[in-house]
Amino acid sequence: MEQAKQGQRQGQQDKGTRSRGLKLTDILVTIVIAVVFGIIYKIWGPMYDVVKPLGTHAEQTIYGMWFIAGTFAFLIIRKPGVALLAEIAAASVSALLGSEWGLSTLYYGALQGLGAELVFAIFLYRNANVWVTSLAALAAAAGSLVLDFGYGYIESLSAWNYTLLIGLRGLGSIVIAGIFAFGLSKALELTGVTKVLRPASKADYDALTRL
């Protein structure tokens, strides 16, 4: 009897583990999301230069758009690896379309996706509220700053200038890749479209409405 119970528990654990892994459908949907945002990433490039003259580091307020593929894809699929895959794939599409930053776009995509992925992992991929999403957006921003510094783009800035840049990029990340991505996923949830990917449970809706 005890062995039967243990076998049943093991079966449930194995099932839970399997459900955590990415299925082909998950990967394909993630890629589709990444392609859409990859095109947006490319279009967003000129916007960076348009906003730049508006004030010191004003362009940083829209930088968060380049982090949204990872956060949004995770909110839809909610499985390990999705944020990283989506961000790398979106960066790849942007690069193939002729991104102004060339191959370095791929490096940015990898670090930004890794930053978001780490935050979702810390919460065991179970929390999809706006606060966790915003933290993931900030982590993606941190990844981009690492490369900015490595390439020498911002290392010569004064302390106040550097602080302003980080603050505005962080703010833009929260608004676009955090709050906006969350709102977009919530709207999609309410249409019932995501039931094709994962039947929505009460816990799913609770996670979306929990602020």
Question: Could you list the spans in which at least 5 consecutive residues all have pLDDT below 50?
Answer: 3-7, 10-18
User: Secondary-structure element sequence?
Assistant: HHHHHHHH
Portion of residues in beta strands equals under 5%
Shape: globular
Count of helix runs: 8
Distance between the termini: 45 Å
- CATH architecture, please? Orthogonal Bundle
Helix content: over 70%
Number of strands: 0
Radius of gyration: 19 Å
Major beta-sheet overview: none
Oligomer state of the chains in this structure:
single chain
**What's the structural domain tally?**
1
Structural class: mainly alpha
Overview of the structural elements:
With 211 residues, this protein is mainly α. It has one domain (24-209): Arp2/3 complex 21 kDa subunit ARPC3. The chain has helices at residues 2-20, 24-51, 68-77, 82-96, 104-122, 130-150, 159-191, 202-209. Helix 3 (68-77) packs across helix 4 (82-96) and helix 6 crosses helix 7 (159-191). The protein is globular and about 50 Å long.
